[in-house]
Predict the 3D structure of the following.
Amino acid sequence: MQLVVLGLNHKTAPVEVRECFSFSEEQVKSALWHVREYDGINECVILSTCNRTEMYAVVDDAEEAFPIMQQFLEQMAAQEKEVANYLFFYTDVECIRHLFRVASSLDSLVIGEGQILSQVKKAYSIARDVGTTSTVLNTMFHRAIAVGKKVRTETRIAFSAVSVSYAAVELAKNVFGDLSKSNVLLLGAGQMGELTARHLVETGVKTVFVSNRKYDRAVSLAEKFQGIAVPFEDFMKVAAKADIVITSTGAPHYIIRAWDVAHLMPKRNGQPIIFIDIAVPRDVEPEVAAINGASLYNIDDLEAVVESNMRLREQEAELAESIIETELDELVAKFRYLAFRPTMALLADKAERVRQRELKRALAKLPDIAPEQRKIMESMSKMIVRKLLRDPMVRINEAAGTDHEQFYIDAIARLFKLDALGESRKSERKISYRYARQ
């Protein structure tokens, strides 16, 4: 048995390749139903997002599974051209480490983004519902999800804005705190300005005014935010009602001058105003920053915040990596134990039957023994069995995952006659295996 992951992501493949391998939930479900037709793939989970598509599997042999899994993904994407150069393939410990880093958002385009953990949960849930997971992937994905949560709660990897639009929102929050009573004026239809306004709306701002040189464009954009379109020549009148002004007009000159803002402030009755100038060339005259009650941030200010926050996230990522390595060691140890679980269960079960049989014979010869003495004999017999089995169990555990693993399994089975328990034990052996797989 081997753990493997085959896939591509934003690091290995350009967007024109990734979009061919971006699958819907229904496509993933359909593919998982067919994965049983492929020999050697025992368990499978498919994770597909806009930036990655990855196929996690438990296989009999990794080397033999690679071309089968590649063919499977290519058929899902209906791709005939060669994509091998865009694929990565990790096995065993590296496979687990990769999933842990994915779930913790350390492998994301933006480190610390929160969406990937829910996407990992969803991918696992789909595979579990279809029935393509069992002991190994259930164990691995449960632990990966727990690791992702632990990284987000024990580090500050997701606490700071790492995009210009988010940085603008954080700056607005620093000035106003609660934005639910704030009004936003969006000047121009620039993509960054629109994205910033969208983030502000998501925080619950009160009203969005939109103004653009082409009024029909302002109307169209205002509808997206359930806002109010404003003729471009009237935007300074509306600025008296706005608390946040976002500019991205692309004009070759300043459209908001210090003189305009100086005359605007008395109309605001002492209420502060923020100008977020994302335009290049700039829309707002730099001298506006010197006016009492007015704050001005341009693209350089926002990018400086983003850069600082990225450095902070990278520092937190180092702490996250140490958490992942600790959790990885624990899971690898658990998997090694699972390999021997059926044999160990059979050995313990046989020892317990022998103990009970001999104790029963001994007690039959002591009919007048007191209940307290019975308890002492019961406890003593259990302790003898436990201590006798302790060293073999430890040696078995140490051999798990090594080249001697199968040798020890066979040796224990022969030495203790675990393979000769009779037909009546076959069903019990199946039960032991089932418990090991849960």
Remarks:
- The first helix runs from residue 15 to 18.
